[in-house]
Amino acid sequence: MRRQRDNATTRSIAVGGLARVEPRVWRGAMPVQFLYTAGAAGERFFQTLKRKGIFTATHCEECRLTYLPPRLYCERCFADLSDTWRDVTPVGRVYTFTIVHVDREGGPLSSPELVAFVRIDGTDGGLVTRLLEIAPEDVRIDMSVEITLAPPRKRRGTLEDILGFRPARSVAKRPFTRR
Question: Which of 10, 40, 70, 119 could bridge to 58 as Cys pair (CB 3.0-4.6 Å)?
């Protein structure tokens, strides 16, 4: 059963004798403008990455957690972490990954891209990033990876300064070639 109201469409479905309502869908354009800031901790992280090519993290001694991305307050005990900054080498391990075959608009990519969550060594966090210079069949969970950054003169202090992670030099099995 469909109901049309204004510009929204809802659909009720009977499942096991119970009516379930699916989420509404609005068709049309919705102009949205927003400004996203990385915040004080994020800004310091990106500026250090831009200048030094390394990560910074914050550490809570009480909870024994090292935050990357950094936080100004511990998420567990709410301790002030503003004086606990430490440098972290941008290497880590693949925690999970996926192979992406379509772009943001749903069109096919010319070649698949690898996206992974990389846990950063020495921290309790990580980043969602691209995996570079490796064939999909060679990616392994817990594989050691290292950062690939934009050249120093092209860094702007944004997430785009991180091009991705590649296998740590001692791990690479064979050269990656685009298919």
Answer: 70
Q: Where are the beta strands (DSSP E) in 42-149?
A: 55-60, 65-67, 85-88, 91-102, 108-120, 126-131, 144-149
User: What does the block give as tokens for 12?
Assistant: 């009720």
Q: Give CA separation, 158 vs 14, 107, 175, in Å.
A: 48, 27, 29
Q: Are 72 and 41 in contact (CB under 8 A)?
A: yes
Residue 88: both structure tokens together: 């972290």
List of residues 6+ apart from 100 with CB closer than 8 A: 109, 112, 113, 114, 115
Distance of CA 95 to the CA centre of its chain: 12
For 57-103, the pLDDT digits (tens) are 999 999 999 999 999 999 999 999 999 999 999 999 999 999 999 98
Reduced DSSP (H G I as helix, E B as strand, rest coil) percent helix, strand, coil of the chain, to 5: 15, 40, 45
As given in the structure block, the two tokens for residue 155 are 């860094």
- Tell me the whole-structure pTM to 2 decimals: 0.74
List the domains of the chain with CATH numbers. Answer: 39-167 (2.40.50.140)
